[in-house]
Write a structure and sequence with these properties.
alpha/beta, single chain, Aminopeptidase
Length: 464
C-alpha cells in the first residue's frame, strides 16, 4: 500500500510540475507576443519630391503587414495595418492650405479590429505605389506610400548566385560600368551669391539681336543620387554627362547660349532650379533625367510637360507672393491690378507657356524616337516642380530606363550620351526656328532662311 501510494504521489507530482512549467512559460510568452505588435511611432507627409507628387511615411517599431485600396466620392486612399497600435504621442500632420501642389489633403486614423486604418483624403484620384522598408542603421521601419505619377523608383541591386564554378575573384567581383565625363563646356558660371529678387525682363528691354538662353538642368546631384542601375550606374552622373554635352552643343548653335543649372556633383533644391533658370533669363528650360521601374523590361525615352493641375496650383502660389507677381505675364505688374484680373492674366500666360512647352516637347520626342525606342509616343503631363515656372516653356526628358540592363550600358556610353544630346538639340533648334521670339538673333536667321527658300523656289519655278 505504501509503495503504491508513493508511486501515485510521484506521478501526480510530475503532472502538477508539468502544468506549472507550462503556465509559467505561457506567462513569459505574453510579453513577447505583445512586444511583437508593430507600433506606429510617427506619421509624416512629404510634398513634393521627384519620385512622387507626395509621400505618406509611417514610421513603425517593426515591419507590419498592410493592405491598401482606394475609394471614390470623395477620392480617398486607405492604408490598413492588419495588426498594429499607435504610440501615445502620435500626431497627424497638419497640412497647410498653401500646400496646394500636393494631392494629399489630410490624413485620418482610427482603430480597426486588432490594427489601425489610415484614411488619406486626396484632391483627385491618383496612382500610388507602396514600399515597406525594414529597420536598418538606427532608422525605424517605414511604410512609404508615394502618391501621384510618375514614380521614379530606384532599383535595388540583386544578389546573383553563380551557376558554374569559377575562380573566387570572378564570383565576388561586381561588374562596373564606367561613366566617362566629357570635357567641361564653355557655359555661363552659376551665380556666386544670391541676386536681388527675380524680375522678368520686359520685351521692350530685350537687346535687339540677342541670343536665346536655354537652361539645361541635370537632374539630382550631390546627396541625391537619383535612381541606379544593376551595375551601379547613378542617375546623377548620367544626367550631368548628358546635360554638359547638350550645353556644349547649344553653345555651338548660332543665336543660342546654354546655362547649366547644375555643373557639378552637388545638390540643388527643386524650386531653386526653376528660380536659377529665371534669374538667367532663360527662354526655355529642359531637365535631363533617367527613368527607373520595378519592371526591368520597361525601356525607352519619355518627355513630360507640366500638367494643368500642377499649373493651377503654382499660379495660386505666385499670385499669393506679391514680390514674384510683380513682373509676369508679358510685363504686366500683377501685384498692382485687381486680383481677378491678375488671375486671368496668369491663366493666359500659363496657357501660352504650356502650349509652347508641348510644341517643343513633341519635336524633342520625335528626335529621340529616331535614335532609339520611346516608352510613350505621346508627350506626358505631370506636376514636376521643376516645370512650374509660369512663363518659361519647360520640359523634362527621361533619356531611358536606367533599370533596364541594356539601356543602363547605353546611358553610360559617351557616344550614346552624345546622340541623346544632339537629338534634344535638334528638337529645340526646330522649335525655335519655327517659333522664333521676336527681336532675337534666331528670328533674324529664321527670316533669312525663309527668304533664301522663297528665292530658291522662285528660281526653280521660273527656270534659269
Amino acid at each position: 500500500m505504501n509503495i503504491r501510494y508513493t508511486q501515485c504521489s510521484v506521478t501526480g507530482f510530475r503532472r502538477l510540475l508539468a502544468i506549472a512549467v507550462a503556465c509559467v512559460a505561457g506567462c513569459w510568452a505574453v510579453p513577447s507576443a505583445s512586444a511583437a505588435v508593430p507600433q506606429v511611432q510617427s506619421v509624416a507627409v512629404q510634398s513634393p519630391t521627384e519620385q512622387a507628387a507626395a509621400r505618406l511615411v509611417l514610421a513603425l517599431s517593426v515591419a507590419a503587414e498592410y493592405k491598401t485600396f482606394t475609394l471614390d466620392g470623395p477620392p480617398r486612399l486607405v492604408v490598413d495595418l492588419v495588426a498594429a497600435e499607435s504610440a501615445s504621442s502620435l500626431e497627424l500632420p497638419a497640412l497647410s492650405a498653401s500646400a496646394t501642389s500636393s494631392p494629399i489633403l489630410g490624413v485620418r486614423v482610427a482603430k480597426r479590429g486588432a490594427g489601425l486604418r489610415f484614411v488619406v483624403d486626396l484632391a483627385a484620384a491618383s496612382p500610388y505605389k507602396t514600399r515597406l522598408i525594414p529597420a536598418a542603421k538606427g532608422q525605424p521601419a517605414r511604410l512609404e506610400v508615394n502618391v501621384g505619377a510618375p514614380l521614379l523608383l530606384a532599383v535595388a541591386k540583386p544578389v546573383i548566385a553563380p551557376v558554374n564554378a569559377a575562380p573566387p575573384s570572378v564570383l565576388t567581383e561586381t561588374p562596373k560600368v564606367a561613366i566617362v565625363e566629357p570635357p567641361k563646356p564653355l557655359v555661363p558660371e552659376l551665380p556666386k551669391a544670391e541676386p536681388p529678387p527675380v524680375k522678368l525682363v520686359r520685351k521692350a528691354e530685350l537687346r535687339a539681336g540677342r541670343d536665346l538662353i536655354i537652361a539645361v538642368d541635370a537632374g539630382h546631384g550631390g546627396k541625391d543620387p537619383g535612381a541606379h542601375g544593376l551595375n551601379g550606374t547613378l542617375e546623377k552622373d548620367v544626367t550631368l554627362a548628358v546635360a554638359r554635352r547638350l550645353a556644349a552643343a547649344l553653345q555651338r548653335e548660332p543665336g543660342m547660349r546654354a546655362y547649366l543649372v547644375r555643373d557639378g556633383d552637388h545638390f540643388v533644391d527643386l524650386r531653386q532650379r526653376m528660380m536659377r533658370a529665371r534669374k538667367a533669363g532663360a527662354d526655355l528650360f529642359v531637365s535631363i533625367h533617367a527613368d527607373a521601374a520595378y519592371n526591368r523590361a520597361a525601356a525607352g525615352s519619355s518627355v513630360y510637360i507640366l500638367s494643368t493641375r500642377g499649373a493651377s496650383s503654382e499660379a495660386a502660389r505666385w499670385l499669393a507672393d506679391r514680390e514674384n507677381a510683380a513682373d509676369l505675364a508679358g510685363g504686366v505688374e500683377l501685384d498692382k491690378v485687381d486680383p481677378t484680373v491678375a488671375s486671368v492674366l496668369m491663366d493666359l500666360s500659363q496657357g501660352d507657356t504650356i502650349t509652347a512647352s508641348d510644341r517643343a516637347a513633341r519635336l524633342v520626342l520625335g528626335e529621340l524616337d529616331r535614335i532609339g525606342n520611346v516608352h510613350k509616343r505621346e508627350v506626358q503631363s505631370a506636376g514636376f516642380m521643376v516645370l512650374k515656372s509660369p512663363d518659361i516653356p519647360s520640359m523634362l526628358v527621361e533619356t531611358a530606363f536606367i533599370s533596364h540592363p541594356a539601356e543602363e550600358v547605353r546611358l553610360a556610353d559617351p557616344e550614346h550620351q552624345q546622340r541623346l544630346a544632339e537629338a534634344i538639340q535638334n528638337g529645340l533648334r526646330t522649335y525655335f526656328y519655327n517659333n522664333p521670339p521676336p527681336g532675337t538673333r534666331v528670328a533674324q536667321l529664321a527670316a533669312a532662311r525663309r527668304n533664301a527658300a522663297r528665292i530658291a523656289a522662285r528660281i526653280v519655278s521660273t527656270g534659269p
